[in-house]
Amino acid sequence: MKLLTKSTYYFFLLSILALIIAGVLLYSGIKNVIYKQIDNSLITEKTIIQDQIEQSDTIPDFEATFGHQIEVKLRNYPVRNYQSIKDTDIYDIKSNSFLPFRYLSFRGNTIANRGYIIHIFQILNENQDLLRVISLYMFFLLLSLLLISLLINYLIARNLWKPFYTSVKRAGNYDILSDKPLDLPHTNINEFRQLNMVFDRMTRKMRADYLNLKEFSENAAHEIQTPLAVIQSKTDLLMQQKKLKKESINLIRSINEATTRLFKLNNGLLLISKIENQSFHEKKIVSLKKIIENTLDSYKEIMQLKNITVKMEASDEAVVEMNDVLADVLISNLLSNSVRFNVDGGFIRCLIDERHLIIENSGLPLTINTELLFKRFHKGSDNPQSVGLGLSIVKKITDSYGMQITYTCQGSVHKIKLQYRPIED
Description:
alpha+beta; Helix Hairpins; Heat Shock Protein 90; 3 domains; five-stranded mixed sheet
């Protein structure tokens, strides 16, 4: 849920609560005002009746009208003075229903010391109708004010939070490879200015760290190449010398193999670093069919020695948009594994269309968990010449282009499936 939506939601809940409380208080206030007027009218009428009784020492006759009536009860003995105002319902024959009344009941004595009890009834229908109309009017008025305030609050909040959303979006789209600094919107809100300063410092530091790491990787890889080349050339010279003992030859061969392996390891790590740093910018329309044919042709002698048969079904529309160097590395690593880890008299099958590349080959079962196959330094065989980076490089390339790669094995048949998006016309 967006921050603006959530803040509006909480404002709406609080406004509803305030509306309910205000409605209850308003209804009670209006009701009290109306009832106060009725009570004052009843008390005034009571005072008039008492004045008449004191002046004439008799109970006057009262004419009943609809909605207003007076009941009198006489006693031959004195009664205690008493007054109360209450609500009641009286059955009406004409309407065949009970009608609400407010009545004042009071007691008193005449000059002759005879008691009387008088009830003055006043119907509430009209007043209740007025109360309902006023309450309904006030309810819709408050509801309209609530909706208007919600709309105003939403528009104001959206305008206030606009620099925040703009800053977050631009920070999220920041390209660490770009030389341009992060362009953040100007704002006069202190908190948003502080956020922009944090974003700016963070992206500048990220850029500086990236450049330092990139420079270190390139320098380290370059500087390592020179001593490795020296070691390898020296071991080659030693191997050419005569009168070497068998033990010395084995030691020199071991040094040479370790140096070669270190060469491969250094080049592989450097390539992974370049892929992660997005150093391969250029993209081309690359034909996978052509790359596979060229790669298989380069392994032709090895496949003939191992008597490996190759079958390929390829569509001319099997093209992808990517860096051509990485495309060569991707296909070369996949096919080199299919050739190197194949068995004598084995097979390689390639199926290519506009969405999939499937490579199947025969071979011995893996000695590693298949879930670790695309991790660094995890090898699918015990071959000492393998540095365990080939498939991790493949994984880095496929991830950088949004491709999906999976591995399955059924018996002695290994299957790599690569899924990619077709190029739209």
